[in-house]
Structure formats: structure tokens, C-alpha cells
Amino acid sequence: MISTSSKSDRFRRQTAQLDLPPRVLLGPGPANVHPRVLTAMSTPPVGHLDPTFLAVMDEIQDLLRYAWQTENELTIAVSGTGSAAMEATLANVVEPEDVVLVGVKGYFGNRLVDMASRYGADVRTISKPWGQVFDLAEIKTALETHRPKILALVHAETSTGVKQPLEGLGELCQQYDCLLLVDTVTSLGGVPLSIDQSGIDLAYSCSQKGLGCPPGASPFTMSAKAIDKLNSRRTPVANWYLDMSLLSKYWGSERVYHHTAPINLYYGLREALRLVAEEGLEKRWQRHQTNAELLWQGLAELNLVCHVEQQYRLPTLTTVRIPDGVDGKAIAGKLLNEYNIEIAGGLGELGGKVWRIGLMGYNSRPENVILLLNALKQVLYF
Amino acid sequence: MISTSSKSDRFRRQTAQLDLPPRVLLGPGPANVHPRVLTAMSTPPVGHLDPTFLAVMDEIQDLLRYAWQTENELTIAVSGTGSAAMEATLANVVEPEDVVLVGVKGYFGNRLVDMASRYGADVRTISKPWGQVFDLAEIKTALETHRPKILALVHAETSTGVKQPLEGLGELCQQYDCLLLVDTVTSLGGVPLSIDQSGIDLAYSCSQKGLGCPPGASPFTMSAKAIDKLNSRRTPVANWYLDMSLLSKYWGSERVYHHTAPINLYYGLREALRLVAEEGLEKRWQRHQTNAELLWQGLAELNLVCHVEQQYRLPTLTTVRIPDGVDGKAIAGKLLNEYNIEIAGGLGELGGKVWRIGLMGYNSRPENVILLLNALKQVLYF
To answer: Would the keyword RNA-binding be found if you checked this record's keyword annotation (chains A, B) (predicted)?
Structure first.
């Protein structure tokens, strides 16, 4: 018999069956999920080396290549949330003393700075006020000045609602022989984007925004040029879990065990990516744009001002200035508690100054726009 | 309108609805999952800062404290699989030049060596043949010789099926003023274990074995003494995603955003931990032991030999020697293809020499033992 003499029941907490409110998630993500994705996620797991699971992984890779418009062989889902995929891009190519130039125009630019520093990079930054974008000339000047090995930019800044134009960046980076690293967390699946046409060498995203899947398995892609830098490292990748020299052997034809994949999340991600392929990228991008414009128009009718100039606004995430005298947090609280609608406040510099409203993936639907606008009208003006 | 001129449909793969075989997972994990866990996982997500989700996180923390028998405040689930939680233990407390002593007696001991090296540790090792355990005197001698800051040992070696006795280790580590780090990946929820009584400072586990949950959210715990080492670091934690100085502010009362938690996995983990609390640890440990003994007896009747001496055998994972002249891979393939039963071959040194049979969590049931033994009999002898 097993000894039980001194076992403690102190934390043997009595809990009820999971019982959560039916939220409409119109913040910066997670967004609500298509019922087909939830059903797929609840499929009983098979093993992470089962031939049937390896086929699921292959399908995820192809469907991700479609969604991202890339032919990169190393296009996979990292077994963590978007921040893990973000860290994976830096961890694999940054070696101590490498100059990394980061364009900071919001919270996630700062996160790139923090992460790159931890891998020993010589980090240089250029900055813009939160809500603005960089123009090509500024970036060219900075490349000329800093001669970085990597230029890191956020395509869709979740903290500001800004869409950074990518035109011309690939050519510039080729000219200055540096890798182009782009955060597509809030653009993949909702905003026009082509990794290969834009000359992007490293990109990451998440599952819970434009792709409409729960969080936890996160898209990652790396060009042949970036792989060359990985292969010519003088030091091992300083992060075991995210080491692509090991992970590529599990996702590639060798099928060498690295870690146990989050099986059920991959089921969900596969279903979410199937939905993207079924809808088609043009239609999906157009849907996001149309519903965002509907939102912007309605906000204007409520005398609310968008923080970002229209041409640089993300269709997936809109920042709205909190009017003078209005308690932004109280309004968001009312939406949540009275109408089960989640929107978010600002992050970092924009804390207390804006609300963040997301229309992402499955949630980018006109009924959600109408619901939100009318609920907002109620809590603001009645 | 959005330009669609140059979009490629090359990877817009036609895929069918997910359709996977009904595997009985009797390998080293993942194991099958209680239907209640799958149902919980398919609950529509709420936001990662929603008050109702924060309550779910609190429940997970308490239920994990119960399962691990610890009062450690920093007891959380890392947003990755077991290997991420493993890396988290080292990343947070290892600083460059720290002496880390690793007891290597299997594949996962080697992984600890690899990971600790990447964080700049001065790694020392002691070794045992795969299938044996360390005794206290050997460890004492090694502590005396190497004077490490951290002693790392694997409680339940998934590659060998060995259970390392933990008695006396806590006192030894206190005497030599070093932190005790223990891998409990294949023991938590299935093998008697008390973090606090054993004087363990750092431990990690996974969700897909003894806890009977899909993989992807992994238990991590850290004592006050280990937190002191974290707080007195001269260098930042060299891993952003797993940095406990940041993560503890999300799981603690401050609720500062760090990353978007894998919401639905936490729903599943909560339900799996509820099942542990409902059953009670003594009963659960006893169930694992009873079913393992049933398996061992049946294997002996089939003239199969367990690789590990009975007193050191894990109830969760049994290594069985492949008889001379038998093609181990072919037998496992037949079990999978003819009976939908997954068992695994050996890892590393034991590759080709043993099969690994798991009876973990929900799968530790007499009907699985009978099924496996009779299927094995068929494919071996008929």
C-alpha cells in the first residue's frame, strides 16, 4: 500500500463545472472561434508521432503557406502563444553583438527590443509616435546609419491599430544585406499580406486573431536566407524549446522527436486554416475591410474619433479615442458586465487614452458591428 | 477594393474534415483524455484578462498545489508543453558560470544538460546506466565534489521507466546550500510525490500523462528559496516567454498582461485537475500502482521481461525488453495498425532494446491492461 500518512488536503479545492459567460470578444484578441474549430479541438488526441498526426502537421504547413503567401519550407506552428513565436524569430538568428534595428511605434516594438536584448543583440531603435507609421526614407536612413543584420518591424501594431506599409522594404533590406523580420500577429488572416512578395525573411503570428482559433499554437516562417544565418551560427541557439535547428527535424521529413506537440490545438488550427482556404484570402481580406469601414462610419456617427489616420488603419483592430470626461475603463466594464461584450483599453503610452476594438477572423461580421455600436451608444449616452 | 492580382493558390490545399483513428494511447504520452476534459476544452473562450478567466487561473493554481502537495505561491501552468516548463526551471535560476549538477540516467537527464548549457551553466554530471537509480551516498559525494548551485534530477525517467527515490535529497541539498530541481513529467498525478515534503525547490511537469489532459499547458512550481535566486540575478532571465519575474505578475494579484494565455487548454487542465481532486491523490496513486502490477504480472506470463528492477519501476511507464529475434518496431506497428493501440519503442540508448508502455491518468484502467496484454499476445505469438 502507498503511504498516505501526511498528505495535505489544504488545496483540494471544491470546484464547480466550468461555467463561463457567453462573451462577444471584440478586443485585441482572443476573438470568438468558429464552432467547427471548437469541435475539431475536442477530437480525442492521437500520438505526436502517429502517422495520422504527421499528416495533420503537413496539412497545417501547407495551409499556413497559403494564408501567409509564402513558399518557405520552414513554415510551422510553434507550440506556444504568439509571444513564443515572436521570441523564436529572434532566438534563432540573433547572435551576441549582432546589430538589430527595431522600428518602435507601439508596445510590441518595445517587446522586440526587450527580447532581442536578452539574446545579446546590439539593439538600435528608430521611433514614431504611437499611431503613426515609418516611411521608406526614414528606414533607409536608419539602415544606412546602423547597418543592422536584422531589421524588425511590426506590420500590425496591436497596441495602436496602425498598419505599417511594407512596400519597398524587402528591396531595401536586400540592398543593405539585412534580414527583414515582421510581426504579423494582428494581420495574418485579416489584412493583405504576402511574405514572399514583401521579401520578408522572418515572420510570426498567433492563432487567436485573424485566424479565429484559440491561442496556443503560433505561426512561424523563415526564409532560406534566414536559415543560412541560423546554420552559420557560432553559438548554439540560446533557447532549446524554440530552436529551429531541432524543430525543423520534427516538422521536416526526418520526424525526429523534439517535444510533445499540443495535439488538440493543432486540430483546431488546422480547422481554422481550412476555413481560411475555403473562404479564400481575397474574400477574407475584403470582409475584414468592409466590416471595419462599417465600424468606422458608425463610430463617427457616435462622434467618436479614431486614433489612426484612415489610410493606415488596421481593419482587424481599431483604436478609438476616449472622449474628454469619459471614464474609459468604466465604459468597457459596462459593456462587459451588461452586454457580455469585451473591448480593451489602451496599452502602454495609450493607456487611458483609447479603446481597442477588434473585428478579427470569425468575429469580423456585420452583426457584431451593429451590436457593438448600439451597446456603446447605450453605455455612453443613456 | 483590395488588389488580388498576384495571389497564389499553390498551397490552398483541399482538405477533408478531421478524421482520426480511435487510438488507445498506451505509450509514453500523450494518453487518452477523460471526455469531461475534451468537453471543457471546447468551451468558447473568454478573454485572458476577463475576471472569470482570472478565477479559472486561481483554481488551476490551487488544484495544482494539491496535486503536487506544495504550498508554493508560484505554482502555475506554463503556456507550452512539458519541455517549455523544463526550460523555465533552468532559465529562471541559472546564471552564466553557475555550477549545475545533473544526474543523468536517461534521455531527459541529457536534455537537462543541453538546456542548462544553453543558459551558460558550468554543467557537471554524474551518470548511471539507463534503467538504474542514484543512491544518496553517490549524490552526497557529487555534491561534495562539485558544490553546485543547483542539483537537477529526473524523478520519473520517461525513457527508462525508472523512479528515482527522493528521500533524503532535500536535506542533502539544504546541507550543501543548493537548489533541488526535479523533473516530475511522468510522475505528477500518477506516482506518490510531495514537493514540499521532499524539499524540492523547482519542479515541472506536463499535462498529457498522469494528469490526463491534452498537451500544451505545463505545471511549474518554484519555492521561496528559488525565487530568492531569481530575484538576486545579476543578469535578466535570458528567455522572455518563460521569465517568471514577468509571469508571476500575470498569475499573481497584479494581473499584468504578459502574453495571451492558451485559454482553452487551461479549461482542459482545470477539468483534469478537478478529476484529480475528486478522486483524491491516495486513490489515484493506488490505482496507478494496482494497474501497473496487473500489467507486470501479465507481461511475465507472456515471458516478457521488464527492464527495471521492480522496486524502482514507475507505475506510469513500463519498459519491456524486446525479446531476441523479435522486430520491436514491427510489433508496435502491428499493434497500431491492427488494434489501434499505441505503444512506443526505446529512446536514445534504449532504442531498439525496449518497448515503452504507459498507463497514465485516465488510461490507467484494468480494461486497458487486458486489452494490451491480449493484443500483444496475438501479435507476438500468433
So the answer is: no
DSSP letter (8 states) at residue A43: S
Q: CATH no. for residue B179?
A: 3.40.640.10
Half-sphere exposure of A46 (CA within 13 A, CB side): 22
Q: What is the pLDDT of residue B3?
A: 54
Instruction: Mark yes or no for CB contact B7/A69 under 8 Å.
Output: yes
Residues A73 and A155 in one domain: yes
Q: How far is B129 from chain A (nearest CA, A)?
A: 22
Regarding whether A272 and A316 lie in a shared domain, the answer is: no
Cβ of B81 within 8 Å of Cβ of A262? The answer is yes
Q: In this structure, what C-alpha cell is assigned to residue A365?
A: 461580421
Is there a domain that residue B12 lies in?
no
Measure CB to CB from residue B2 to each of A42, A265, A282 and give the nearest one.
A282
CATH of the domain at B290: 3.90.1150.10
Does the distance separating the beta carbons of B1 and A83 come in below 8 Å?
no
Please indicate, yes or no, whether residues A329 and A206 belong to a single structural domain of this protein: no
Using a CB–CB cutoff of 8 Å, tell me whether A267 touches chain B: yes
Nearest to A82 by CA among A158, A163, A179, A169: A158
**B285 and A CB contact within 8 Å:** yes
Q: CA nearest A217 in B: which residue?
A: B262
ipTM greater than 0.90: yes
φ and ψ at A331, to 5 degrees? -65, -45
pLDDT at B16: 94
In which domain, by residue range, is B303 found? 24-30+280-381
| DSSP of A126-170 | EE--TT----HHHHHHHHHHH--SEEEEESEETTTTEE---TTHH
Whether B377 maps to a domain, the answer reads yes
Task: Identify which of A82, A84, A89, A78 has the alpha carbon closest to the alpha carbon of residue A266.
Answer: A78
Q: Which residues of chain A have pLDDT under 50?
A: 1, 4
Residues in a beta bridge with A179: A150
Does residue B260 fall inside a structural domain?
yes
Average pLDDT over residues B57-75: 98
Return binding residues of B for substrate.
356
Cβ of A79 and B82 within 8 Å? no
Q: Do A263 and B239 lie within an 8 Å CB cutoff?
A: no
Which pLDDT score, from 0 to 100, does residue B2 have? 56
Task: Report the gap between the CA of B66 and the closest CA in chain A (Å).
Answer: 5
Q: Give pLDDT, residue B1.
A: 46
Domain shared by B117 and B200, yes or no:
yes
Q: Is the model's pLDDT at B219 over the cut of 60?
A: yes
Instruction: Verify that B251 and B365 share a domain, yes or no.
Output: no
Per residue in B185-214, pLDDT tens? 999 999 999 999 999 999 999 999 999 999
For B28, name the nearest residue in chain A, comparing CA atoms only: A47
